[in-house]
Amino acid sequence: MQQLDGLDAFFALNERQHAPMHIAALSVYKPSTTKHKNFLQQEIHQSFQERLSTSPIFRRRLFNVSYGMDHPYWIEDQNFDLKHHIFSHSIKDHNGDLESLLANLHAQAMNMTRPLWEVHVIHGLGTLKGYDKGAFGLYLKVHHAAMDGVSGTEILAGLHNLAPQPFSPSEQTDDWQPDAVPSQWALGRQACINNLRKPVNLTWQARKLIPSFKKAASLKISDHTPKVSWQKSPFNTRIDAERNILLLRFDFGRLRQIRRHYPHTTVNHVMLSIVGGALRRYLIALNSLPENPLASMVPVNVRNRDSNVAGNAISMLLANLRTDIECPLQRLQAVRDAANNAKDFSKSIGRTAITSLVREMPNSLGAATLRTLSALAYWPGGIAAPACTIVSNVPGPPVPLYFNDAKMVDMVCLGLIIDHLGLFHVATSYNGVMTLSVLSSPSSLTKPEVYRRCLQESYEALDEAVSREANSSHSPPAKRA
Hints:
With about 475 residues, this protein is α+β, with helices and mostly antiparallel strands. Helices cover about 35% and strands about 20% of the residues. The chain has eleven helices and 15 strands. The radius of gyration is 24 Å and the shape is globular.
């Protein structure tokens, strides 16, 4: 048994029917030979059966403490059955609309009494533009309480090879053993101890943070970098149960050329600038652009290099998107400066300071906070928030991966949305292509196709501006008459 810490427990406790707390990845494959649907389904089932030992998430489930007295525990599931986790779909049954199929699958909550993962095999992707004959997809979704983006890529690595290997059933033994159901009396006694200890630890952690916050507040910030402000946006509202998904693809090599145009600029800064430009265009179209620039939450990996824990080890930065700047070049530089300032602020208070506070928060306090946030979602016009979206960068492998003998040709990652934060961007790089997924609900992004166009136009405007400035800087000086 393993008890969930503060952040993992937050995702488990925040599970709602209209806001399920899972993240996902879609991998599309080109097999070496076209296989019948039934044979392929059987091969995938057997392949996952043999790979169950690659990650602890596959066979453990949540076990809740009575009356919500304490954080839940992970236990090895006595009733684990692989057939409850692998499903089959045909893209033909969804009119060839991959985004719509993914949106439907992503909107469905998982059974919280079973291990919190599912694999959906999507057959017939070879009929779509851009995919070869026989292509199929694996949509893997896992509850955020079990993993974050970084541990998710490690799980994907455990399911793949660096070279094609035709499938052949293995006879390897598996020494996995299920856990006995724990006693609620013993867990209740431990909960009492934890509830006495955590307030003391929470106070101690808060006292330790005070000098760090004072030091961070004294950092010198450039005059043209405004502070993050609390304000309302159309995305800070109550979400509904439906989901919209947009998928856009960019040349990863070109994004790297753009980031090299200015010093101390990363691909993540480029993506933040593109999102900032798209939000500006979209809100202008809705006549809803605020005077103060909007900001984004950016997940940051704080996992130790030698850590093999599959749960969450993330913190958050607040990065200004500079939606108040029209020029794409000026916005890129301003976004870079704002992100670097946010990174310096995070270093000053400690990379794990906020997660340490959440870890020591009593279960009753966390539950009360969630109920309050849910109630505020019904406030007319929404509430002011420090961020309007989340922008996450998940670096995928730079080389092709293989699932048995099938080559992965495409990779997409999906985040999650909650009340007050109904827009989530994930930029995933794989084998020279950057795929940007945009997750929303109809209530938070009312015109998704308009926003798709705004994202594409924002990228093109930045690309053209960088090319124009680069050409002008390398052009020979004009001859005098």
